[in-house]
Amino acid sequence: xxxxxxxxxxxxxxxxxxxxxxxxxxxxxxxxxxxxxxxxxxxxxxxxxxxxxxxxxxxxxxxxxxxxxxxxxxxxxxxxxxxxxxxxxxxxxxxxxxxxxxxxxxxx
Length: 108
Hints:
Blueprint: H1 11-38, E1 58-59, E2 66-67, H2 75-82
Antiparallel strand pairs: 1-2
């Protein structure tokens, strides 16, 4: 496809060319969005948990440093394990997921 000499085109011709380009870009955009939806990455920003704060799972009792348990082992925890301690020694007690009911559905 030969590109037109933009300097020689009139304003209506340039506007028409811009409209054609916009239409073509929208077609490509729709194709790319369909492909992303097929692979489960609709917004292109990673998985559904990206950016979600995760509560720490491990805490050092003296320094207060924490680690969520995701990714590589935290340096402080790796040093403690190398010194003979167990990972379980640093677990933070998690609150129970069984919450007290809100009073609906049960007679007291």
